[in-house]
């Protein structure tokens, strides 16, 4: 009795090779990493300096942009700034983005997360929140930041340093 080829052996034959796909199984993501507060700006600068490959834009949140200057309405857009200093709008940046990562520091105001999160929700964009913490940050400050960001991030991650943020961005294929 002759034994047949195993499934693995059969899949590696020349006959089966014609069914293989000769390109990567996923396309690179168009990512936007947005620092929400002044403290996270320096972390963003370090991340951008060490970044290689992909289509990621590293941006700083500057301010909300209201529909009009005279009527205090819900912000419909925001002003962002690239590492180079060039200003752009949130709407422009997320229009063709696949994933938006909001980077903030524990204890910082998460007002920008609401504006960015709502803009992304309306456009069906995936959002991730990365909160950089340290041992010096009181638990109450951390809780406030997490509570404020939770409704606006599909995934919320706490990091105890910049190193983990870079690893998280890599895991997200940013």
Characterization of the model:
With 174 residues, the protein is α/β, with parallel strands linked by helices. It has one domain: Rossmann fold, CATH 3.40.50. The chain has seven helices and seven strands. A seven-stranded mixed beta sheet has the order 4-3-2-1-5-6-7, with helices on both faces. Strand 3 and strand 4 form a beta hairpin. The chain is elongated, with a radius of gyration of 21 Å.
| Lateral strand order in the biggest sheet | 4-3-2-1-5-6-7
Record field, number of beta strands: 7
Tell me the span between the first and last alpha carbons.
53 Å
Q: What's the overall geometry?
A: elongated
Evaluate the radius of gyration. 21 Å
CATH-defined fold name: Rossmann fold
Largest sheet: 7 strands, mixed
- How would you name the CATH homologous superfamily? Tubulin/FtsZ, GTPase domain
Overall pLDDT level: 82
Give the oligomer, counting copies of the same chain as homo and different chains as hetero. Answer: single chain
């Amino acid at each position: 009795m002759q034994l047949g080829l195993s499934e693995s052996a059969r899949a590696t034959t020349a006959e089966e090779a014609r069914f293989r796909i000769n390109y990567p199984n996923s396309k690179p993501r168009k990512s936007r990493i947005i620092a929400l507060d002044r403290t996270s700006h320096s972390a963003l600068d370090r991340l951008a300096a060490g970044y290689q490959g992909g289509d990621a834009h590293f941006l700083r949140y500057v301010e909300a942009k209201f529909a009009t200057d005279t009527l205090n309405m819900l912000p419909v857009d925001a002003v962002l700034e690239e590492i180079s200093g060039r200003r752009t709008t949130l709407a422009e940046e997320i229009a063709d983005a696949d994933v938006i990562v909001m980077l903030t520091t524990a204890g910082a105001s998460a007002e920008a997360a609401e504006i960015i999160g709502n803009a992304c929700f309306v456009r069906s964009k995936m959002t991730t929140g990365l909160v950089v913490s340290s041992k010096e940050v009181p638990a109450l400050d951390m809780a406030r930041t997490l509570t404020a960001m939770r409704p606006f991030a599909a995934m919320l991650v706490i990091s105890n340093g910049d190193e983990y943020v870079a690893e998280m961005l890599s895991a997200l294929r940013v």
